[in-house]
């Protein structure tokens, strides 16, 4: 098989090593990398020949030069902050390069339309990382419920503690990350929609800068959901992320294997079977709507159990949108 040529944007960040590993493990070449931060010694683990740039303009010049020599790259892996994704994807497509972009593809759902148009104009493809769809336990669940006609009762709980740095970084800035739902919740919303069908109704019951909870009606499931980056919400004190989906009273275990699915994602993409814009759009629309909806006082039977515990301390704020509540921190 011909080795494919890759460049990577955001290479000094946390998730980039999963992409570098995936490129290596699928036996392909990393040609060039870009990041304004130059803490990228890790590149030597992969090759001594990777061209590294801290300025976009020089990166662009290099990619253009090798393209003109007929040695252009095939894929651009995008690991930059969420608010830069659509710009970096557009750059790839205009250069005639397929984009492999981290989630979420965009923060603002309406920006997907121009990416779809650009795919058509340039004959290139946008792929994204929806790794939970490749998780063995969740594939089993999808198979189990594929012909279901009943409505299932689900509790989704995801607690992934973060320190003070999170609020100071782009991840804590809703205009750059989209907030907790876009940043950490989108995988779970995508997975639920993938298994239980389209969104019929959504509610937000509580939100602050560390957590958010609400209720969702899908075609074949009602979901009480709770997402948190607050260590005080963890059920144990081991500081490990807690992921749980309870379906009709039964817990589905998928705490392990969550972080090892980038190589599998790349294998799918390289076979032309990767997840694209259409696959990602329902969950992007949902988190966009959740971000902009009003926090409501819910029916008691729709509240997530972890939120119920705190119900007496809540002040229901029906005048502010979720976006306003999140930005006031
Ligand atoms: N699929 C997953 O499980 C998963 C896990 C973590 C993060 N992510 C996603 O990966 C992306 C990166 O997250 P992260 O945790 O690695 O963040 P990070 O902050 O650790 O890394 C982002 C990198 O982008 C660089 N950057 C900033 N502006 C840039 C620009 N203009 N051009 C090029 N690079 C730029 C930063 O210097 C930094 O090195 C995000 O979209 C995030 O949502 C996905």
Structural features, described:
The chain is α/β, with parallel strands linked by helices and 329 residues long. The chain has two domains: 5-130, NAD(P)-binding Rossmann-like Domain (Rossmann fold, 3-Layer(aba) Sandwich); 132-258 and 276-327, Dihydrodipicolinate Reductase, domain 2 (2-Layer Sandwich). It is 35% helix and 20% strand. The protein has twelve helices and twelve strands. The chain has helices at 16-25, 56-68, 85-94, 112-122, 136-144, 165-168, 174-177, 179-196, 262-270, 277-292, 305-308, 322-327, and strands at residues 5-9, 29-34, 51-53, 75-78, 98-101, 126-128, 152-159, 199-207, 211-218, 221-228, 242-247, 250-252. The strands form two sheets. The protein has a six-stranded parallel beta sheet, sandwiched between helices. α8 (179-196) crosses α10 (277-292). The longest helix has 18 residues, at 179-196.
Tag the structure with descriptive keywords.
329 residues, alpha/beta, Rossmann fold, 35% helix, disordered C terminus, binds nicotinamide-adenine-dinucleotide
In short:
This protein has 329 residues and is of the alpha/beta class. It contains 12 helices and 12 strands.
Could you give the topology of this structure?
Elements lengths: L4 E5 L6 H10 L3 E6 L16 E3 L2 H13 L6 E4 L6 H10 L3 E4 L10 H11 L3 E3 L7 H9 L7 E8 L5 H4 L5 H4 L1 H18 L2 E9 L3 E8 L2 E8 L13 E6 L2 E3 L9 H9 L6 H16 L12 H4 L13 H6 L2
Parallel strand pairs: 1-2, 1-4, 2-3, 4-5, 5-6, 7-10
Antiparallel strand pairs: 7-11, 8-9, 9-10, 11-12
Helix pairs in contact: 1-9, 3-4, 5-8, 8-10
The structure holds nicotinamide-adenine-dinucleotide.
Nicotinamide-adenine-dinucleotide binds next to loops.
């Amino acid at each position: 098989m011909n080795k494919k040529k890759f460049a990577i944007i955001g290479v000094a960040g946390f998730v980039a090593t999963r992409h570098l590993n995936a490129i290596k493990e699928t036996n392909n070449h990393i040609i060039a990398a870009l990041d304004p931060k130059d803490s990228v010694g890790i590149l030597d683990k992969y090759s001594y020949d990777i061209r590294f740039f801290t300025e976009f303009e020089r990166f662009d010049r290099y990619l253009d030069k090798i393209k003109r020599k007929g040695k252009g790259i095939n894929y651009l892996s995008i690991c930059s902050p969420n608010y830069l994704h659509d710009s970096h994807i557009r750059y790839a497509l205009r250069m005639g390069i397929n984009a492999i972009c981290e989630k979420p593809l965009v923060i603002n759902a309406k920006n997907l339309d121009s990416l779809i148009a650009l795919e058509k104009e340039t004959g290139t493809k946008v792929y994204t990382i929806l790794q939970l769809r490749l998780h063995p336990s969740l594939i089993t669940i999808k198979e189990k419920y594929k012909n279901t006609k009943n409505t299932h009762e689900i509790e989704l709980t995801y607690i992934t503690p973060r320190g003070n740095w999170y609020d100071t970084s782009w991840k804590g800035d809703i205009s750059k990350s989209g907030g907790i739902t876009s940043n950490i919740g989108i995988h779970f919303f995508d997975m639920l929609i993938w298994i239980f069908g389209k969104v019929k109704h959504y509610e937000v019951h509580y939100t602050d800068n560390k957590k958010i909870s609400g209720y969702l009606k899908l075609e074949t499931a009602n979901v009480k959901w709770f997402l948190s980056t607050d260590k005080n919400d963890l059920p144990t004190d081991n500081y490990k992320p807690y992921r749980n989906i309870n379906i009709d009273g039964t817990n589905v275990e998928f705490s392990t294997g969550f972080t090892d699915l980038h190589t599998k994602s790349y294998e799918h993409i390289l076979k032309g079977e990767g997840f694209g814009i259409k696959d990602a759009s329902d969950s992007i629309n949902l988190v966009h709507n959740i971000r902009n909806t009003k926090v409501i006082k819910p029916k008691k039977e729709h509240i997530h159990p972890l939120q119920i515990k705190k119900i007496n301390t809540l002040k229901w704020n029906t005048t502010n949108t979720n976006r306003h509540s999140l930005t006031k921190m």
